[in-house]
Backbone:
């Protein structure tokens, strides 16, 4: 019952306590961090993109640009209408297609197609694109985003699933240089 | 009364906070600080309380699910008793909050209150400003209508421009690949749990320091702040000319706070709640998204920045501004406090205020956006068709059908994206008109592929007729000579 032994034991409890809580903290932190970073990890592991059908080729007559909508392949039950995505399908000449994302390449607002002047116009900041998606005027630094497409059994399919943004170039077919 | 006294004493014997509360409430402030200029901090606090209360009330009905949020807002607006009023209070409260916080910041800045020893109060205040704007942004997302949906897309597009980490930041922000249920859920968690928690913590620290260090004394020109002597001088001032905050010095705060709450209520009753606008269905593309009032200036800036400058301006500008604001109290920690002796401070505030006001005003009517239905909804004024030839009228038809009217106005009707064309024939010669229409230039696209030669001829004929009555259209001086037949060649020495 000497004082130093008492303090020595309490001291030991303190050290073990801190050590144990440190380990518990790390053990708990790992799943919490993984939980927080799961949207990024999912993207890294296997991309969000997959092939989606836009429907029969007959809907897209040659020489015209038409609006198509599809349900995003990555969908959760509470998404409601937000998982319905629109895109512009241009049938160039009956054989070749271009499928443009609805998002303007400037800041993502939905662009509108005008067949009379063959221009896409964006309502937000005045970006304009030509019918092949090339930048015509306004703030966008590049042309419209394009999806990879393929034709299977008379249906038009696109590889999509992730919203295109200026920094995310994973789903563009080719960079369309602005006309100078 | 005696019962209340007994209960009060019973509580205080156990809580033991009575003395602290009394001492804090009755702490002495320099007499001159009981001024109308000093009311904005408490006004911000009171509006914060209003937002918390109305926010909790809204959370009773609002459903933070992408599929149901819009419907729950309709329920609030139309089915719940005075639901529209609570929504309106919360919406107008947010506008007032940002305005009051900015005015408070300007007042603190012009009165030199960020100087020694209140540097940390200022720094916490800057973080409070950032967090308040965070509440504003996450709050407008929660409305989850078309403006919110596409506004989120704009936020994601800005975030994606961060080098290397951009796409990961976007995925984190959206909670997945697209704007969907996961996005709304995390913005709800941000707006209701994380950011208010930060706000409460930061406000507590901010207020603690205001009380501990004392409210900034009224700045006098010539009375300089010196670290060695300031605290002593301040205490002497309070001792010599101090009044108790409660009940003598808080009258103007009370009055102004009540007035602000009344104003918010009046705006709520008169103007009603904000939307929601259309349902957040991405396939509805006939939409013109707009941010809430406090971000309209950014909307204008993003339209006017040259494209190549945009990413650096967006990513570097705010960082530099915030770092400068945080560092400022250390660079200018001593010296003159009064704005009368600080011309650079006053000019800076004026510049920022004028810039913000100009950009906000511009964004209220968005001259840079094409008016998408001008070509079909706004006819050409009859003055411009009167006394025209058939070719010119055909040109007017081309003008409409090819959506020229979307970007160009005639008689002030139509788009403002391009210049008004009322007098274009006076500015451009016929050749220049043909070139401009076919090749475009500046912010105008080239129409050459979409106009047949006949259409171009007709269109230019119409444009050539657009000049004031007494004025002749512009002419290329050499044109007559260039087009004249060879008989006009000079007599001497031409083969």
Residues:
């Amino acid at each position: 019952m000497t004082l130093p032994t008492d303090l020595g034991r309490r001291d030991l409890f303190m050290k073990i306590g801190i050590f144990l809580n440190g380990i518990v903290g790390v053990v708990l932190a790992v799943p919490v961090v993984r939980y927080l970073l799961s949207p990024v990890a999912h993207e890294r592991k296997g991309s969000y993109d997959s092939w989606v059908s836009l429907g029969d080729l007959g809907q897209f007559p040659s020489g015209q640009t038409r609006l198509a909508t599809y349900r995003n392949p990555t969908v959760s039950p509470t998404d409601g209408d937000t998982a319905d995505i629109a895109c512009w399908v241009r049938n160039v000449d009956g054989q070749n297609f271009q499928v443009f994302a609805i998002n303007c390449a400037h800041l993502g607002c939905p662009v509108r197609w005008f067949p009379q002047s063959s221009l896409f116009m964006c309502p937000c900041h005045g970006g304009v694109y030509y019918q092949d998606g090339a930048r015509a005027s306004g703030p966008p630094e590049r042309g419209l985003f394009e999806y990879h497409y393929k034709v299977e059994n008379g249906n038009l399919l696109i590889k999509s699933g992730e919203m295109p943004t200026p920094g995310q170039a994973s789903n563009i077919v080719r960079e369309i240089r602005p006309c100078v | 009364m005696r019962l209340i006294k007994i209960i009060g004493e019973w509580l205080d014997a156990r809580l033991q906070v009575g003395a602290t509360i009394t001492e804090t409430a009755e702490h002495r402030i320099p007499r001159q600080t009981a001024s109308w200029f000093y009311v904005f901090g408490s006004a911000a606090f009171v509006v914060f309380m209003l937002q918390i209360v109305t926010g909790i009330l809204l959370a009773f009905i609002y459903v933070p699910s992408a599929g149901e949020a819009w419907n729950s807002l309709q329920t609030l607006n139309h089915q719940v008793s005075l639901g529209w009023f609570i929504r309106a209070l919360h919406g107008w409260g947010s506008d007032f909050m940002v305005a009051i916080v900015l005015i408070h910041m300007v007042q603190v800045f012009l009165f030199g209150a960020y100087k020694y020893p209140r540097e940390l109060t200022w720094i916490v205040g800057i973080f409070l400003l950032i967090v308040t704007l965070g509440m504003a942004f996450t709050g407008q997302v929660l409305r989850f209508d078309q403006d919110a949906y596409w506004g989120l897309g704009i936020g994601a597009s800005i975030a994606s421009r961060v080098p290397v980490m951009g796409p990961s930041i976007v995925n984190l922000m959206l909670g997945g690949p697209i704007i969907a249920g996961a996005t709304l859920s995390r913005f709800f968690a941000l707006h209701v749990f994380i950011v208010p928690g930060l706000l409460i913590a930061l406000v507590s620290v901010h207020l603690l320091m205001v009380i501990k260090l004392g409210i900034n004394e009224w700045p006098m020109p010539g009375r300089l702040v010196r670290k060695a002597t300031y605290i002593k001088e301040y205490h002497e001032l309070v001792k010599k000319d101090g009044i108790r905050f409660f009940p003598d010095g808080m009258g103007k705060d009370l009055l102004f706070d009540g007035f602000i709450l009344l104003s918010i209520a009046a705006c709520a009753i008169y103007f009603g709640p904000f939307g929601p606008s259309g349902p957040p269905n991405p396939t509805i593309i006939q939409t013109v998204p707009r941010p809430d009032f406090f971000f309209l200036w950014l909307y204008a800036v993003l339209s006017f920045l040259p494209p190549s400058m945009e990413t650096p301006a967006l990513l570097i500008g705010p960082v530099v501004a915030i770092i400068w604001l945080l560092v400022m109290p250390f660079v200018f920690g001593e010296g003159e406090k009064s704005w009368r002796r600080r011309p650079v401070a006053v000019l800076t505030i004026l510049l920022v205020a004028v810039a913000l006001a100009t950009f906000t005003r511009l964004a209220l009517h968005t001259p840079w956006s094409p008016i998408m239905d001008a070509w079909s909804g706004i006819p050409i004024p009859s003055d411009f068709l009167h006394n025209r030839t058939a070719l010119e009228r055909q040109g007017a038809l081309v003008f409409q059908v090819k959506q020229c009217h979307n970007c160009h106005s005639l008689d002030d009707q139509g788009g403002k994206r391009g210049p008004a064309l009322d007098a274009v024939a006076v500015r451009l010669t016929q050749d220049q008109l043909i070139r401009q229409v076919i090749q475009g230039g500046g912010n105008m696209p080239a129409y050459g592929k979409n106009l047949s030669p006949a259409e171009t001829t007709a269109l230019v004929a119409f444009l050539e007729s657009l000049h004031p009555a007494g004025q002749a259209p512009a002419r290329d001086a050499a044109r007559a000579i260039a087009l004249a037949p060879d008989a006009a060649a000079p007599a001497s020495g031409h083969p």
In short: Confidence is low (pLDDT under 50) at residues 176-180 of chain A.
